[in-house]
Amino acid sequence: MSPALSFFILLLAFSKADALYGHYLGRCQFSSYDGHDAVYLEQMYFNKILELQYNSTLGKVVGYTMEGKKAADILNKNARYIHHQQWKLQFCSRAVPRIHSGGLLTPVEPSVWVRSVKDAGSKHPGMLACSVYNFYPKQIRVTWLREGKEMSSEVMSTDEMPNGNWLYQVHTFLEYIPRPGEKISCKVEHASLVEPQLYEWEPTSDSGMNKIIVGTAGLLLGLVFSVGGLMYYKKRTHERDLVPTTECEVQTDERGSHTCRQSPTMMIRRDMKRSLLIILILNACCVFSQTAHDALYLVGCFENGTTEVQFELDSEEVFYVNFKREEVVYTMPKFVVEDPTQILEIHHLYRNAARAKSLCPVAATFIKAEEKNPPEERDPPESILYPAVGLQLGDENTLICFVNHFYPPDIRVSWTKNGDPVSEGVSLSRYFLNKDQTFHQFSTLTFTPSEGDVYSCTVEHLALARPLTRIWDVLFGYIVGHCQFTSSDDLVYLAQVYFNKKLMGEYNSTVGKYTGYTEKASEIADGLNKNPKMLKQEKKNYEECKTFIPFILDLYSKTAVEPSVSLSSFKAVDSKHPSTLICSAYKFFPKQIRVTWLRNGKEVTSDVTSTEEMPNGGWLYQIHTVLEYTPRLGETITCKVEHASLMEPLLYEWEPMPESQRNKIAVGTAGLLLGLVIFVGGLIYYKKNSSGRTLVPTG
After folding, report:
1. Which residues pair with 627 in a beta bridge?
2. Is the domain of 553 the same as that of 580?
3. Which of 524, 559, 594 is the last residue before a domain boundary?
4. Which region holds residue 275: left if phi is over 0, alpha if psi is between -120 and 50, else beta?
5. Helix (H) or strand (E) holding 536
6. For residue 684, is it within any domain?
7. For 435-463, how does the pLDDT look when each residue is reduced to its tens digit (9 = 90+)?
């Protein structure tokens, strides 16, 4: 039996009655490029509590609990154990250069997207989002610059969120009040970049802004995509390690010590199940001068005899062992290392994993006899749902369900699409250890987003009273703010929340409270109505809306465009009337217009059909109104147009035949009659002359 496993079982003998889940960590800490200053630590945890630790600097084991101190005394007297720890320190030192030269820490440059978004609850009229996708390693620094100066206030950021394929994403938001001609940039610093990259925000032109102001007058608070699940999701124990961008350079001081900015670290760790489960984790943590990297070797022993072995680097899986096929399966992407076997196969991975597997039943048998099914430590999971890259309808994407901070590592994840279970395109990672000794895991779903689709990720765990479900829809949901008025005295302010085109709830200034239209929305509305701060904010929104009214009314009155109107007649094949008239109004602004038919001065309501106001795409509109009728002799038919551009309604009378055409017909008729008169006169004259003549035969 190996000293490490003996150590683990020995500690179990001294463990408390409720200590079942434990793990073993081997840490290799160093800051040099060649590993000459490495310090090796070996730690034992039970129920997330550090029991004891070996420190190569001290050269002995230190206990931190009563049981741990007893075990430490025994181990410090074991010469074989102490010798084996010294060997591990040497192994760690030799591994450091290989990690660098093997390319296991090859950085991947991020893609960046800077855009403008709307936030109904913001006290500022503008909000910018800087989204950084598909970068590795995890450490990154994203900041906002305004006229070249870094912004620290009014800035919100998410943590670096894993995509599940060694790549990460992060999102940073800036609330601001626009100033003419100012320059706002998103600055990104990452190990893949030779120098920081600046991504400048290019706002809409002034003319475009004027159009937006008018076009969104009825939607003062704008359209908001739900970024809340990404904004303020903070892992409870994780702290961001912001790293300035430089390339890895070896530096030598006067004493011959070497330092390097990039820092692979080594750890070894793993996965536990519930009841009578032992996890043997060898965790080598190699800490460089600025960035800590963790390399983890995990051996998981289960009650039913199953053993799982895997290796991770910075919580990303490098390989796992498939004992059924008797092979090592490499799962790291090719952008990290094209052929990882060249680096790792020399360590006899499968042989060592098989040896660890043979020791698992020994440990499990010992636990059964000594622990007698103690109660388990339980922590409920948190979860968040987000796409791997920016959403584009019709383009294949990946939806990530990130499950975090749960203990023990035994969860079930399921997916649905529009309420139906989904299994195709679903993947589930192994468990990964957090710094607080809880675990995280992520499940992914490959999908092609279409408007209206709704996806859900459901997590089941021992610590949950009921399954935890997160819902994500392609529309994300949105908030619409309505400022409805005809004058400054009749303002009504509405803030409405929609998901998948369904109104979930709203605030109405007339009643002065929130109202929910679903069971869950009603619960949220009740909570908001008890929150004075939220109600006060809505009243501020009402007052702010009110200040826009004079500006909007003045703007509309000055920019109104008069319509051009035409009347025409056509024959409708299936009409019950012999005649049909159409009144068309073109190129008018604003959109609101009223077109009616008058017959002998009286408005006609029957046999009238109209189109909606149809946009031309350049702020101008057109509308068409049709009247079916039976002509009456001497009647007057008129199209009446009312619009903001007109001082008074205009009447356009239908003339069955234009005057010019009538004149032409009159002239033609007169010419025809004159020709007929001359023809008849000539004919009569001819007849008279013919009847008075005597015909004499020639001969």
Report:
1. 581, 608
2. no
3. 559
4. left
5. helix 532-559
6. no
7. 888 888 889 999 988 877 889 999 999 89
Which residues of the chain have a pLDDT value below 50?
1-20, 120, 204-290, 367, 370-371
Q: How far apart are CA 362 and CA 4, in angstroms?
A: 13
What CA–CA distance (Å, rounded) separates 657 from 662? Answer: 7
Where helices occur in 204-332 by DSSP H, the ranges are: 206-215
The two beta strands, 327-330 and 316-322, are antiparallel
- The answer to whether 107 and 190 have CB atoms below 8 angstroms apart is yes
Contact 116, 126 (CB under 8 A): yes
Q: What ranges in 77-224 are assigned the alpha helix state H?
A: 79-101, 206-215
357 and 301 both lie in a single domain: yes
Residue 63 β-bridge partners: 52
Pair 398, 44: CB distance under 8 Å: no
Paired residues of 471 in beta bridges: 456
Domain CATH for 120: 2.60.40.10
Between the alpha carbon of residue 349 and those of residues 341, 354, 362, 581, 642, the distances in Å are: 10, 9, 21, 87, 84
Output the pLDDT for position 501: 65
* Structural domain boundaries enclosing 194: 111-215
340 and 393 belong to one structural domain: no
Of 473, 506, 532, the domain-final residue: 473
The pLDDT of residue 236 = 39
488 and 504 in a common domain: yes
- Say if residue 375 is preceded by a cis peptide, omega within 30 of 0: no
- What is the distance between the alpha carbons of residues 500 and 471, in angstroms, rounded to a whole number? 12
Question: How many separate domains does the chain show?
Answer: 5
Task: For the beta carbon of residue 226, count every other beta carbon within 10 angstroms.
Answer: 16
* 348 falls within a domain: yes
pTM above 0.90, yes or no: no
Question: Does 136 lie in the same domain as 80?
Answer: no
368-415 confidence digits (pLDDT tens): 554 455 556 789 999 988 888 877 778 888 999 999 999 888 889 999
Q: 574 with 551, same domain?
A: no
Same domain? 462 vs 533: no
